[in-house]
C-alpha cells in the first residue's frame, strides 16, 4: 500500500478538540445543529463552481481525479485545495466561525461529533445515499444525536500482523480465534518461535486508545449511553478488557515502550516483536523493512469467546458546509464520490480503502487476499462516539491506560478516574 495514511491517522489522534468561536461575524452561538435530514437534491447534472478542501494525499490527488466528474457534468467546475492534516481541524473551525467556507470538506471521522453539533456542516439530504451500502462502523461515525452529517469516503481499520514463519515454528498453522488462543499464540511466538516479545502493544500515550479500545468493544463495552448524553466508561466489560490488555505487560509478552519512528517495523523484521496491531499502511512499511509477503500475515482480531473481534474504524468523511453557496451541487459531487465505481477508481489511484462495501467485490480489492482480511474486519468495526468532546476524553483514556500498563495504577482505579474525568467533561450533546 502507498501510504500517507499513517500521517492522516496520527493527525486524527493528535489534534485536540477546540471549541468553535461561533461569534456574531459567523454562526450563531446558539445554533447547535440541524435536526433530521435535509431536503433531497434534484435530479440532473451538477453545475457551478464547487470548492473542496481535502487533506493529505487525498487533497493532492483529488483535483485531477475529479476531471471525470466534470466530464459528466460540463457546467460544473470542481476546485480542490489541499490542506495539511495538522492544520485541518483549526482551518475548518475558523472557517465555520467566520462564515467564510468552501462547499465540501473532508472531515476526519473523529471530528464529526464536534462539527456536526456546531451547526457548521449540514445534515445530508434525504435519499442522497443508502446508509446500508457502507460499512456500518464508518456510517455510524457520521451520526450525531440521530442526525447524519456526512458520508464515509474512505476507511481504515486495524488487524493483527504476525510473523508467519515464527508462528509455524511455534506450531501455529492458523491465527488465534479467541482471547485465550491469542494469549497463548503470543507466548508461543516467544517461547517456541524465538521472538524477544510475542507482540508489541502501545503502553498508552497519544492515540493508544485505538489499539486498546477494540478489546473493550469486542467484550461488549459501550463508551456512552444510547443517546450519547453520558459517558459509560466504568463498566465491567471495560474493566475486564483493560485487565486483559494489562496482562500482556505483566507477563512480559510485550514491553511498555514508546517506539521511535521505524523501530516497530525493524523490530518486526528482525524478530524482536513477532506481532502487532495496525492498519493497511503497515504492509508497505514492513516490506520496506525487509520482510517478504511469505514471512508475515494479517488476521482478524479475535473476540473473547472465539467470535470475531471488533476493531477500530477510522478514515475520512465528506461533509457540506452550512454556509456553502452551492449546496445542492456540492451534494451531487459527494454522491458521485460515494459511487462504488468511483470509490474503486480512487483506490486504484491513491490506495484508499473504499467505504462502500460493494466496491470490494471486483478489481484489485477482490483479488488481494491480504486486503480481503481488512475487508472482513471492516464488517466488524466500531467508531468512537460521535460526540463533540470525544478527542478530549480519548486523551484521558490514553493517560490512564499508560498508568495501568506501567504498573502505577490499578485497573479499578484507572476506570474510576476515566469515568470521573469524562463525566466532568460531558459529551457536549
Descriptive account of the structure:
Keywords: Signal, Transport. The protein is an alpha/beta fold. The chain has two domains: 5-157 and 313-382, D-Maltodextrin-Binding Protein, domain 2 (3-Layer(aba) Sandwich), CATH 3.40.190.10; 163-311 and 386-425, Periplasmic binding protein-like II (D-Maltodextrin-Binding Protein, domain 2, 3-Layer(aba) Sandwich). It has helices at 5-14, 56-65, 67-72, 85-98, 112-118, 136-140, 164-169, 179-191, 209-218, 236-250, 263-270, 282-288, 327-337, 340-350, 363-367, 369-378, 390-405, 411-425; strands at 48-55, 76-83, 104-108, 143-144, 147-148, 151-157, 159-163, 275-278, 296-299, 311-320, 353-354, 381-382. The strands form three sheets. Strands 1, 2, 3, 6, 10, 11 and 12 form a seven-stranded mixed sheet that branches. Strands 8-7-9 form a three-stranded antiparallel sheet. Strands 4-5 form a two-stranded antiparallel sheet. A hairpin with a 2-residue loop joins β4 (143-144) and β5 (147-148). α9 packs across α10 and α17 (390-405) runs antiparallel to α18. It is globular, with a radius of gyration of 22 Å.
